[in-house]
Each structure stands twice: as structure tokens, then as C-alpha cells.
């Protein structure tokens, strides 16, 4: 079981943490929302929670709670720039459907 970053995403996290001056890594999870059921939640981690699993990828620590990992196991997180827009992008092999706006996803039981 794991969640990984692409080299480009890891570089983005390292750069941001350096500019921020603090933080342990990146926290990735999900919350129940949207028309398809789940949405990704991403934030910088300042501490490790009791239910967090920690993955090290390209020298960056990823913190994922056990409940979220069931839905995003195997996900690769990338960082993409398109024109003036930039964002983290998720390639989740568990997704069975996405809403039209791309904000939420569903997984097969």
C-alpha cells in the first residue's frame, strides 16, 4: 500500500516547504463530498497524526490517514502547469467514475 509523488511534484513540495520555512511534508487524504462521493484533500503537514501512515518518495514525506488510504492506495500525485494555472493532479487507479466538473470521484466497492 502506498501513495507516491512524481519527481516534479516532489520538487514543488520541497520548494514550497523551503519558502514556508517549516513543515514535515505533504498530507494527502479524501473527504466525503461532491456529486460523485469523494474529493481529494491536500495540505502541508506540520505534524504526524496518530492514524497517519508515512511514505517517502523522492525525498519528500507523504502523510496519509488509514481511512483515506483505502480509497487512494496506488495513487500517484503529479504537479502540472497549464498556462497560468498550476495544481496537483491525482492518478488514482481505484477511481470508477468522476463528476463532470472533476472535483469529486467514486470508487468501486
Please state the second-level CATH architecture.
Answer: Sandwich
Q: Largest sheet, described in full? A: 4 strands, mixed
How far apart lie the N and C ends? Answer: 17 Å
CATH class: Mainly Beta
Give average pLDDT, whole number. 89
State the helix count: 2
Order of helices and strands: EHEEEEHEEEE
CATH topology (level 3) name: Hypothetical Protein Aq_1857, Chain: A
What is the global morphology? Answer: globular
Rg is 14 Å
Question: How would you describe this protein?
Answer:
The protein has two helices and nine strands, in the order βαββββαββββ. The chain is α/β, with parallel strands linked by helices and 109 residues long. It has a single domain, classed as Hypothetical Protein Aq_1857, Chain: A. The strands form three sheets. It has a four-stranded mixed β-sheet with strand order 3-2-5-4. A hairpin with a 2-residue loop joins strand 6 (76-82) and strand 7. The chain is globular, with a radius of gyration of 14 Å.
Offer a quick outline of the entry.
The protein has 109 residues and is α/β, with parallel strands linked by helices. The chain has helices at residues 7-20, 66-72; strands at 4-5, 25-33, 37-45, 52-57, 60-65, 76-82, 85-91, 95-98, 105-107. It has a single domain, classed as Hypothetical Protein Aq_1857, Chain: A.
Amino acid at each position: 500500500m502506498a501513495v507516491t509523488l512524481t519527481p516534479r511534484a516532489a520538487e514543488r513540495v520541497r520548494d514550497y516547504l523551503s519558502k514556508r520555512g517549516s513543515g514535515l511534508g505533504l498530507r494527502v487524504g479524501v473527504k466525503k463530498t461532491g456529486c460523485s462521493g469523494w474529493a481529494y484533500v491536500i495540505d502541508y503537514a506540520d505534524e504526524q497524526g496518530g492514524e497517519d501512515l508515512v511514505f517517502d518518495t523522492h525525498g519528500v514525506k507523504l502523510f496519509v490517514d488509514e481511512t483515506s488510504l483505502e480509497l487512494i492506495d496506488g495513487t500517484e500525485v503529479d504537479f502540472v502547469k497549464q498556462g497560468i494555472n498550476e495544481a496537483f493532479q491525482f492518478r488514482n487507479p481505484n477511481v470508477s467514475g468522476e463528476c463532470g466538473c472533476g472535483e469529486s470521484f467514486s470508487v468501486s466497492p
